[in-house]
Each structure stands twice: as structure tokens, then as C-alpha cells.
Amino acid sequence: MTLGIVADDVTVTYRNGHTALRHASFDIPTGTITALVGVNGAGKSTLFKAIMGFVPAAGGSISVLGMPVKEALRQNIVAYVPQSEEVDWTFPVLVEDVVMMGRYGHMGFLRRPKQADQDAVTAALARVGMANFRHRQIGELSGGQRKRVFLARALAQDGKVILLDEPFTGVDVQTEDAIIQLLRDMRDEGRVMLVSTHNLGSVPEFCDRTVLVKETVLAFGPTETTFTRENLELAFGGVLRHFVLGGSDLHDDDDSRQITVISDDERPFVVYDEGGGN
Ligand SMILES: Nc1ncnc2c1ncn2[C@@H]1O[C@H](COP(=O)(O)OP(=O)(O)OP(=O)(O)O)[C@@H](O)[C@H]1O
């Protein structure tokens, strides 16, 4: 088992003094898809930022493919697929330009694309089924198409570790299935896929591993032993009312993919179904 990402006792404190993660530890091997699960504000994005070196760890350490974060950044091996809200969609930029950004780390100082860079962009767009959209403005695309373009950027970068922040928000079932298939292919190529998702129903279906966060890492490991009723109740701070997992049940009907967590004050807290998520 080759180690992909290892967090050892990581604490992250923002400049305003807020500590978003305390003593968080986990490890995930290469060649896996790992779900990052937790309520809003649990620290998922913070963990991503720490892995990308955007925020320093106030304590502990993170290694990526055996390297410190700084070195991993230098080698351009960590790719990021952002949440839609993080992107300024009014910025006038073509689809091919967004994907070309994935090549920047492979280019020289002047960032002049070579034929190999153009080829990588073409191949990445084809792989996500967006070849025909190459010359479109990014702002003119649908939510699902935009996700595909950012996945193409990660592919063009040839990231060995790919962080995806809620890739299923606002995408239809067909696009979700296409994204899951792509993630599986990338896993089989030995990459590390870390996926933050609120779409709990699909976690057991496609994530080999799960990391549960709530201001720290509550639990991590293989999904069968980690994505349990007890751990989910801990992560969501409520009572799990409807929890159907595993095997053929998952595919029998739409209902069986639904997970409902009822919060302590009896309001449905998390209600997710096949295509949904909120
Ligand atoms: N730049 C920042 N400065 C200070 N505090 C921050 C900053 N970014 C996030 N936080 C705080 O850190 C905590 C964790 O936020 P984070 O964005 O990591 O949560 P999350 O799990 O990604 O949530 P969501 O599911 O809503 O995306 C929250 O309490 C948040 O308010």
C-alpha cells in the first residue's frame, strides 16, 4: 500500500484566530477514492486548503505521496476541482483557457503553451465529453458542464492527487454517473481522489474510503467500517432515521439511496437522494 495523503496531528488556525481543525490525523493510500464528509463548517475546505498549502498548519504535518506539501506543490502533483461558488463565472475566459491553466505548472516562466500542452488540453476535454465546447465562454455553460471543464483542468495537469470540492452539487444524475466513472478510471490509474460531498447516498457506492470531519477527523478508513450509523450520527450530531446501505439495496429503487439524519431538535438535517444533495 503506497501512502497518498498522510495528515499527522494537524491543527489549522486562520488569521482571525479561529481554529478550524484540531489534531486531525488520517491517511489514505494511492489508487483510492475517499469521501470527505461532514456538516457545513466542519473543516472540509480547510483540510483541502492545508493539503494545497494555501493555509499553513499551525501544528502537525501533512505529506503528499511521501513529500511535504511544499514539495508536492513544486512538483505540481495536487490538482483541485473547486466548488462552483468559488469561481467567478462572469470572468471572460474560454473553456480551453481554463483547461490550459492545468498546464501552467508544466510550462516555463513565460507560460507559452507547446504542442504537448495543446494535446493535453484536447485529450482532457475529450475525456470529459466537452471537446465541442472548447471555444465557448465558461460563463455560458451549465453547472454540470462547468464541473466537467474543471475536471478536465485537473486531468490536463496530470495531478496525482485530486481534490474535488462537492463535485455533484447542481449536476444531473447522468453527469453524476459520468463523473463517478471518470473518478473510478483515475483511481485505477493509481491516483488519489479526495472528494468532499454532501451527497451521502452515493458515498458507499463509489468511495472506497471515508474520512469524517467535525473540527477534527472523527474517523477514517474503509467505507464499510467507517461510514457507519454511529460515525454518521457523531459527524452530524443527530439521530439517523433512515439509513440504507450496501449491496443491491442501494440500486433497487431511488428511496434506498436516501439517507436522512434527524438533528437533535427533530428537524430533518440531511436528506439526500440519488441525484440530489443540498
Ligand atoms: N478564511 C477564513 N478565516 C477564518 N475562518 C474561516 C475561514 N474559512 C473558513 N473559516 C471557518 O472555519 C470553519 C471551517 O470552514 P470550512 O470552510 O473548512 O468548512 P466546510 O466543512 O468546508 O463547510 P461547507 O460544507 O459549508 O463547505 C468554519 O467555522 C468557517 O467559518
UniProtKB/TrEMBL annotation:
InterPro entries per UniProt? AAA+_ATPase (IPR003593), ABC_transporter-like_ATP-bd (IPR003439), ABC_transporter-like_CS (IPR017871), Metal_Ion_Import_ABC (IPR050153), P-loop_NTPase (IPR027417)
Species assigned in the record: Yoonia tamlensis
Q: Where is the signal peptide?
A: none
- Which residues are in the ABC transporter domain? 5-240
Question: What is an example of a GO molecular function annotated in this UniProt entry?
Answer: ATP binding
Keywords, sorted A to Z = ATP-binding, Ion transport, Nucleotide-binding, Transport, Zinc, Zinc transport
Output the Pfam families linked to this UniProt entry. Answer: ABC_tran (PF00005)
**Does Transport appear among the keywords?**
yes
* Gene Ontology biological-process entries: zinc ion transport
This protein is called Manganese/iron transport system ATP-binding protein
Family of this protein? Belongs to the ABC transporter superfamily.
